Amino acid sequence: MGSGDDRNAQYPLRYRHLFEFEAAVAPEYSIARGEAPARLAICYFTGGHFSGDRLRGILLPGGGDWADYRTEQALWIDVRGLLETDDGARIYMQYRGVWCAAPGALTAVLRRGEPYRHEDHYLRVAARFETDAARYRWLNSVVVIGVGGYADGGVHYSFYEIQ
Could you say which architecture CATH assigns to the domain 16-162? Predict the structure, then answer.
């Protein structure tokens, strides 16, 4: 369990690590939205996995990321995917958020010309889950935040349950 800087907080933020998540993505399909770089970019998942103390498994292919590029430094993320746990439960995952970067950093990383440097990027999402598996129903009613990064043509997030 962790907490942020809550010296003056009436309601301190507490969280618990939920899982690490990695996804491989296919090359994007783009739809221009006015002047460049404004566009909608759709990248489908080709696979992935997740692992934490309370659940682990794979990301099934077929979901993906609908990224709304606003500028060279910022895009909005809308992701949907289907997780399958090691014990066979299926969990629908959706997360939305923002990816902002230092000037030139986002373009360089996405063109796979430069390594991802966490200090140059702000990639944060809010996730929600839905399942009918009794052992994982607790996921249906938790708030989850993800802190992410990009590497090797895919994404990585650390997801945290907000308590």
Answer: Beta Barrel (2.40)
